[in-house]
Write a structure and sequence with these properties.
574 residues, 7-stranded antiparallel beta sheet, two-stranded antiparallel sheet, 13 helices, cell membrane, phosphoprotein, PH-like_dom_sf, DNA-binding, EF-hand_SWAP70_N
């Protein structure tokens, strides 16, 4: 009953605030009396005029009660509510009082009845806090319900632009593209489900108990009852099927030309129902069975249970948020305490740092004194070391110069050895060429002697007789041939002599180069304190070079032989 009282209070709050025109929170006693009488009437509560008059007695301030209307409302009206009243009639009475206040001034695109139903749904989904307001989650839930009822698709991105109220739905912002009849049907369907607890409704055929005839009825399923009417306008009610935890529903086979049959069994009666098709039959079977299961479990209607779960979830999230805020405050307080402790520690550290700085200053002063003393000693030691290093460097330089001089002398000795070997080899080559020239001169001399002998014999043969001239001529021809051969041999010897002379010139050049090197090394040796004395060849007389070779004759002998040769050559030509 606590939940019922909270729901009733929402509509009554609207009626009360509608009477409070100046928004002072006070309403005249006459208006409250009329409101209380009407509430007792629609809620089927006994009216007690005496208690009402006693509660709202006059005082010095006039016909206005200072005791408040809520205590009387709870004690004399809400405490007596049993639930046997018409919710629609109760809400319509409250709507009649508050409609002018809640309806906007602009014309609505929905009917007054639809506006009333939207207002009732708003009260149902609003929070139990005053002034009444509906949270965004419940707005989204309502809009989804209306969208599904209109057969349209829900678009989440448009939800941020919607604001709940009569203006949103009545002005057509939410139902753009839908005709008025579709919107009315959607509002009516959501109203029946959320307010009237209609779980399912629709036309089906029912078999009579007396005449056993089949008649079409409009069935309305609620959490504990199935009511059936002549038509869907609900004006003529034909009966009720009371549901409890002993009821059950069974599927029946087709018979008597009726299809899609099922049976509802109660304690006192059994009802045979025929749906329009198999889908409708299955839907009704599931809906009725689910309703019976909820009765067995003692659970409320599905939409109320879902609303309660959403509310509990919000309360849980709110509690978690409050707990989180409490923890944040505790952490903030702990943080402040920790900051104070840190500040105290910082001050202690600053004092300790000041003392440490003073001690460090003294230590640095002592260290500077010791450092100055050590610096003086280090300077003296450095000066001594520098002197020793200079002496060592001087000795090292002298030693390096001595070693360099020894290396130069060794290199010079090697080069002198090589020059001496070159000179020795040049002298051997010169001796070989000289012997070759002497042999060639001897052979040439022998050939010349032989030629002179042949020439003398030829001169003697010329003086022979004419008889012997022919023979001598023959011999002369033969000798001429021999002479030609000898001349060829002489030319060959001349070529060999020239070749030997070229070799001699080459050897002479080498000897001169060796002598030049020897002279240069002699100067170097003389420059280096005369450690080595070179061996020089002895002086020699100048040589005469003739066609017989060098140093074969003296100049006088050469001139005598030349004159003798010229004389013999002139006589032979004669």
């Amino acid at each position: 009953m606590g939940g019922l009282k909270e729901e009733l209070l929402k509509s009554i709050w609207h009626a009360f605030t509608a009477l409070d025109l100046d928004r002072s929170g006070k309403v005249s006693k006459s208006q409250l009396k009329v409101l209380s009488h009407n509430l007792c009437t629609v809620l089927n509560v006994p009216h007690d005029p005496v208690a009402l008059e006693e509660h709202f007695r006059d005082d010095d301030e006039g016909p206005v009660s200072n005791q408040g209307y809520m205590p009387y409302l709870k004690k004399f009206i809400l405490e007596k509510v049993q639930g046997n009243f018409d919710k629609v009639e109760f809400n319509r009475m409250c709507w009649t009082l508050s409609a002018r206040k809640n309806l906007p001034k602009i014309p609505l695109l929905i009917s007054d009845d639809d506006a009333f139903k939207v207002w009732v749904i708003f009260n149902f989904l609003s929070e139990d806090k005053y002034p009444l307001a509906i949270i965004p989650e419940e707005i989204e839930y309502l809009l989804k319900k209306l969208t599904e009822a209109m057969g349209a698709g829900w678009q989440q991105e448009q939800f941020e632009h919607y604001k709940i109220g009569l203006n949103l739905i009545g002005s057509g912002q939410f139902s753009k593209g839908m005709d008025r009849q579709t919107v009315t049907m959607a509002i009516n369907e959501v109203f029946n489900e959320l307010i009237l607890d209609v779980l399912k409704q629709g036309y089906m055929m029912k078999k009579g108990h007396r005449r056993k005839n089949w008649t079409e009825r409009w069935f309305v399923l609620k959490p504990n009852i199935i009511s059936y009417y002549v038509s869907e306008d609900l004006k003529e009610k034909k009966g009720d099927i009371i549901l409890d935890d002993n009821c059950c529903v069974e599927s029946l086979p087709d018979k008597d030309g009726k299809k899609c049959l099922f049976l509802i069994k109660c304690l006192d009666k059994t009802f045979e129902i025929s749906a329009s098709d198999k889908k409708k039959k299955q839907e009704w079977l599931q809906a009725i069975q689910s309703t019976v299961n909820l009765l067995r479990l003692g659970s409320p209607a599905p939409h109320k249970e879902a609303r309660q779960k959403r509310k509990e979830l919000r309360q849980k999230l709110l509690a978690e948020q409050e707990e989180l805020e409490r923890q944040m405050k505790e952490l903030q307080i702990a943080n402040e305490n920790k900051q104070k402790e840190l500040e105290t520690v910082r001050k202690q550290l600053e004092e300790a740092a000041a003392r440490a700085a003073e001690e460090e200053k003294k230590r640095l002063q002592t260290q500077m004194e010791l450092q100055d003393r050590f610096s003086l000693e280090l300077e003296r030691e450095k000066s001594v070391r520098q002197q020793m290093e200079e002496q060592v460097a001087q000795k090292s330089s002298e030693l390096e110069q001595y070693l360099q001089r020894v290396r130069e002398l060794e290199e010079m000795y090697k080069q002198l050895q090589e020059a001496f070997e070159d000179e020795k080899q040049a002298r051997q080559d010169e001796e070989i060429v000289r012997k070759l020239q002497a042999r060639l001169l001897e052979e040439e001399s022998a050939k010349r002697v032989e030629l002179e002998k042949w020439h003398l014999q030829q001169q003697q043969t010329i003086q022979l007789t004419e008889a012997e001239n022919q023979e001598l001529e023959n011999q002369r021809v033969m000798k001429e041939c021999a002479l030609q051969a000898a001349m060829q041999q002489l030319e060959q010897l001349e070529l060999e002599r020239k070749h030997a002379l070229e070799q001699y010139e080459g050897v002479k050049k080498k000897l001169e180069m060796a002598a030049s090197k020897t002279k240069s090394w002699k100067d170097k040796v003389a420059h280096h304190e005369g450690l080595i004395r070179l061996i020089e060849p002895g002086s020699k007389n100048p040589h005469l070079i003739t066609n017989w070779g060098p140093a074969a004759f003296t100049e006088a002998e050469l001139e005598q032989r030349e004159r003798s040769w010229k004389g013999k050559k002139g006589s032979s030509e004669q």
